[in-house]
Amino acid sequence: MRVFVTGATGWIGSATVDELLRHAYEVVGLARSDSSAASLAAKGAEALRGDLDDLGSLRRGTAGADAVVHLANKHDWADPEGTDRAERLAVEAMLDALAGSTKPFVIANGLSGIVEGRPALESDASPAVGPDADRGGSENLALDAESRGIRSLAVRFAPSVHGRGDWGFVNFLTAAARENGVSGYIGDGTQAWSAVHVSDAARLIRLGLESAPAGTRLHAVAEQAVPTRAIAEAIGAALGLPVVSVDPEDAEKHFGFVSHFFGRTLTADSTATRDLLTWAPSGPTLLEDIAAGSYTEA
């Protein structure tokens, strides 16, 4: 099977490309630069030059593949509306190229905003609908494409997809600890995050691609709820820094944009995902990764 992967040299994308290549898939990765293209070629994958704004490249990559895994996102925190608009247009272009093919289309999403007050379930539909919604409403747009003859499925990722080399949220929390000389949590630190090791997330994507029915929502969640205070304590121990509570009013100054996520409980259950795919996460836990130096070693 030939798989077109957007975000192929990103954090989750790189692990996904490796997972697919290990299982004898042909991989074509979207590459924004010569260095990204060279990285893919060194692994044995093919590179297609382009980005999310290059709709022609997205259509060509999609049309020439047997399946699509869409992991790229601009994540421009200074221009969220532009990020959402680009996501919507990119997904529309790829779905148009897949219409009537019955080929699988895997789309990434996060857990933020799915539900409040309890862990999200795979049966919970995303409330983001329409082009002006979060991520351009792309999850619902993709899942609704079942009516167009596309086997679409959504993979919702825990706020921490962790591992050595991660440049996501926990990396920003570690940088804030270094800058401030303390490792902080917000308020009483009872907010919690779900977490998954990047290798487990990549395996889940492959398993979903292989067998998940159209319209499936999958949760890439190994640990349902890691308290934010425990995350701060692990970072503090790894850096040899004191651990303090940060007043919610001071959180953005202390943590930057990540404060908007670190001050919330973002959790999900993955029981249905595990049962459907016989997926059993086996990577280290988030706190084990932090303790092993994955975020603190230069």
UniProtKB/TrEMBL annotation:
It comes from the Bacteria. InterPro entries: Epimerase_deHydtase, NAD(P)-bd_dom_sf, NAD(P)-dependent_oxidoreduct. Pfam families: Epimerase. Residues 3-96 form the NAD-dependent epimerase/dehydratase domain. This is SDR family oxidoreductase. The lineage of its organism: Bacteria, Bacillati, Actinomycetota, Actinomycetes, Kitasatosporales.
